[in-house]
Design goal:
DUF1240 domain-containing protein, membrane, three-stranded antiparallel β-sheet, DUF1240, 4 helices, mainly alpha, single chain
């Protein structure tokens, strides 16, 4: 009877070890995805905001940049959460700390949601108020803003100039 029990224990330990490897691989995949998203948002959002602050001649502005850029600390915390789950055993104490942090991140996220949308509109009116819009292709796409309306010609699409026109 004890041999049967030992075999069950050994099987359970192997299953737990396999689950642990699967969880760690999943966490590694999620970590790489969230880190890539964080770097992408920081790069794109930072360059758009830098163009606005430096008052360049041509600025590409997308209203979604501000909410995403302001949520970067929350994305960073999710990265920390995933790393903690990869390298530390999940215990009750660790979960309590992480859940406390998640509450703070949730409050921060909602606050940034409600602050970032008016901030996006303020950026459209105040810093970009002296610029001319080259037209927006859709409600969720950004648009180019230029100091002189003549500069918009470089952003217009002319199908007759397209080399791959279907005939």
């Amino acid at each position: 009877m004890s041999e049967k029990r030992e075999n069950q224990d050994r099987t359970a330990r192997r299953a737990l070890k396999n689950i642990s490897v699967k969880v760690r691989l999943t966490a590694l995949f999620l970590f790489s995805c969230t880190t890539a998203a964080t770097v992408f948002i920081f790069t794109v959002g930072g360059s758009e905001l830098a163009d606005i602050l430096h008052k360049k001649d041509v600025i590409y502005y997308n209203w979604k940049t501000i909410p995403l850029f302001l949520w970067l600390p929350a994305f960073f915390y999710v990265d920390i959460l995933i790393v903690a789950m990869m390298f530390f055993p999940v215990t009750r104490n660790l979960l309590e700390y992480l859940l406390t942090g998640m509450k703070a991140v949730a409050v921060y996220g909602w606050l940034m949601l409600f602050l970032s949308i008016p901030l996006s509109l303020i950026i459209l009116l105040y810093p970009l108020g002296n610029y001319e819009s080259c037209g927006q292709k859709g409600p969720f796409s950004g648009s180019y803003y230029v100091k002189e309306i003549k500069m918009c010609e470089q952003f217009e699409y002319h199908p007759e100039k397209d080399k791959f026109n279907d005939k």
